[in-house]
Amino acid sequence: MLHVRVITPEWRTARLLDELTGDDAVTHLVVLPGAARSPGGDVLEFDVVREGASTVLDRLRALGLDRDGAIVVERVDAALSASADRAARRVPGLGVDAVVWQELEQQIGEEAALSASFLAFMTIAMIIAAIGVLLDQPILIVGSMVVGPEFGPLAALCVGVVQRRWRLVRRSAVALAVGFPFAMIITVVAVWLLTALDVVDRSMLLHERPLTDFIWRPDALSWVIGFLGGVAGILSLTSAKTGTLVGVLISVTTIPAAANATVALAYGARAEAIGSALQLVINVAAIVIAGVLTLLVQRAVWRRSRPAGRP
């Protein structure tokens, strides 16, 4: 369930009330006349079950309330209410399966920004993965996957393509196009510095690494794992099951592949660099394709399940 707070111009309140009181997904409606100061107007607060939230929010935006007033959405962790239970029964579908597109776009849009923290996390994750490659330590590879922030822009890219939000697509593409090379350059410098300090050396890369050599030896399963990871990642975001996302992150070798390619380039191991780069391309392509297809299916199901006459 979601809690929505709306600021509306006074002259639009009556129409908004008609819209909300006639919607089965809406409950706990509260009206505070003249309570808003910036922007000025009336304040309406209500709860809406997730399976009907996208339709309700679309109608609020169609009334221009995101432009002339404000629409604020928050998640409700617990609602002990018979009215809320009735609303959930009246609206088709399950809340856990519902996609609240407006919430998803807002959440993903923030993660797609090319920020200093994004570049820092990318760099830290890649250096950890580079050390994991040289030490043949899977635990460091797993740690780098969790730290790496790259799934945010990848998911935002998928949402932007499906929703035709081309500005979001551009922001995501820029974050990825800048983030990976930036982190790789810093990682090359870090590898050279560690080599100069005699902490690591080229022989560590060239020796047998049975626990981590899968990173630079892609095969058909690389595509399968990347595709399934993309599906699971999008589902975890759309269903608000963010805990599942951690498991997704440690199944896809984007950061480790880029780190392995970086170490190989730093030491002049051309074949391993090419294999790692191919692994990276396969994973990114699989995630994006899987994410787009998953969102398209969810959107088709969402449209089919809407009540007749709703926008």
TL;DR of this structure?
This protein has two domains: 97 residues, 2-Layer Sandwich (Alpha-Beta Plaits), CATH 3.30.70; 199 residues.
Task: Provide an overview of this structure.
There is one protein chain. The protein has 311 residues and is an alpha+beta fold. It has two domains: 2-98, Alpha-Beta Plaits (2-Layer Sandwich); 104-302. Helices cover 65% and strands 11% of the residues. The chain is built from 14 helices and four strands. The protein has helices spanning 13-21, 50-62, 65-68, 82-90, 101-111, 116-135, 138-147, 151-163, 166-196, 202-206, 220-238, 242-249, 254-267, 270-305; strands spanning 2-8, 26-37, 40-48, 70-75. The chain has a four-stranded antiparallel sheet with strand order 2-3-1-4. Helix 6 (116-135) runs antiparallel to helix 7. The longest helix has 36 residues, at 270-305. It is elongated and about 75 Å long. The two termini are 20 Å apart. The mean pLDDT is 87.
